[in-house]
Design brief:
There is one protein chain. Helices cover 56% and strands 4% of the residues. The protein is mainly alpha-helical. The chain has a single domain (4-95), classed as lambda repressor-like DNA-binding domains (434 Repressor (Amino-terminal Domain), Orthogonal Bundle). Strands 1-2 form a two-stranded antiparallel ribbon. The chain is globular.
Length: 100
C-alpha cells in the first residue's frame, strides 16, 4: 500500500499527535503498537513524526481506536481531505460526546 507524504501544515501535526496519543493512551511502546497493528515500528515512528501519513485502511483502523474528540477530528479531517467516504460506522460512538 502506498503511503502519503505529510504536508508541512498544522493538519499534519494534528494527525501525528492523534496517532501518538492513541498509542500512548493504550500505554504501549511503538514496538508493541506495531505488533498489535501488524505495522512496522519504523512506520509508526514516521506517522508520529509527520514524515508520512497513513493511507485509507490504516486511517479507518486508527479511527476505530480513537477515543477523544481531538483524535477523531484529526483523523476524520484526513479522511475528508483524501476524498474518502466517511460513514457513521467509521466514527467511534463516543464522538458525539465530545470527550477530550
Amino acid at each position: 500500500m502506498a503511503h502519503h507524504t505529510a504536508t508541512p501544515t498544522g493538519k499534519g501535526d494534528a494527525i501525528s499527535r492523534a496517532i501518538r496519543t492513541i498509542r500512548k493512551r493504550v500505554a504501549v511502546t511503538q514496538t508493541e503498537f506495531a505488533r498489535r497493528t501488524g505495522w512496522a515500528q519504523s512506520l509508526i515512528s514516521q506517522y508520529e513524526t509527520g514524515r508520512t501519513k497513513p493511507g485509507p485502511q490504516r486511517i479507518y483502523l486508527l479511527l476505530s481506536m480513537a477515543k477523544t474528540s481531538n483524535e477523531i477530528t484529526a483523523l476524520t479531517d484526513l479522511v475528508r481531505g483524501m476524498g474518502l467516504p466517511l460513514c457513521s460506522t467509521s466514527i467511534p460512538q463516543n464522538a458525539a460526546e465530545g470527550t477530550r
